[in-house]
Amino acid sequence: MQLVPTCMFGGDFNAHNIKWGSHKTTTRGKHLKSFAEKAGLDIIAPPTLTRYGLYSASFIDLAITKNFLYPYDINSVPELSSDHNPVIINFYFNYHTPKPDKIIKTNWKKYAIELCNLSAHPFHTVNNTDDLDKSVDSLTEEILNAYKNNSKELDPKIAKTNSKLRKIHTLRNKPKRDWQTTRNRAFNKLYNYFNNQAKNLKKELYHSEW
């Protein structure tokens, strides 16, 4: 069976497996699960039964996707007189991934030195709770200022601009795809090797920013 890099299909597979909600696992269900794992497919089942019957109620109407990473919802809808419910799956194609969080790097040594200099912070005489609140607010502001003075925002994409890291990412991604398709452990081992190299280089780039 030939599959394109990105696909989605569905139907009555008549394959029972506890993985997608059936009360038992049949031979066909085992084969479908095994095939999906080897081919890097995702099996999507609704939260409620798709077929009803005294002895045959089960989840056999499924959707299967590959590299189809959109948010979705799937439901078995009791709208026909058939013993099979229609299954409706909605994909949200207008979904936008959130922007990456800001990356803040702090020089903790300089921060600690500045905090030590705060030991001369003038504490006012505390006669009541208002005086206490003012002193706490003042000290808190000094601590936050010390943090800001010794921190800076980094571009989340800065690591990706490094040519050496881009090369490692390219070398890493191929065995990752091969592993997802074949489940050959040799590809997984090679992926982990390059992934560790990428992590170590990212750390070096991160620390070299100061």
Automatic annotation (TrEMBL):
Gene3D superfamilies: Endonuclease/exonuclease/phosphatase. Pfam families: Exo_endo_phos_2. Signal peptide: none annotated. One of its GO terms (molecular function) is catalytic activity. InterPro entries: Endo/exonu/phosph_ase_sf (IPR036691), Endo/exonuclease/phosphatase (IPR005135). Residues 6-88 form the Endonuclease/exonuclease/phosphatase domain. PANTHER family: DOMAIN-CONTAINING PROTEIN, PUTATIVE-RELATED (PTHR33273), ENDONUCLEASE_EXONUCLEASE_PHOSPHATASE DOMAIN-CONTAINING PROTEIN (PTHR33273:SF4). This is Endonuclease/exonuclease/phosphatase domain-containing protein.
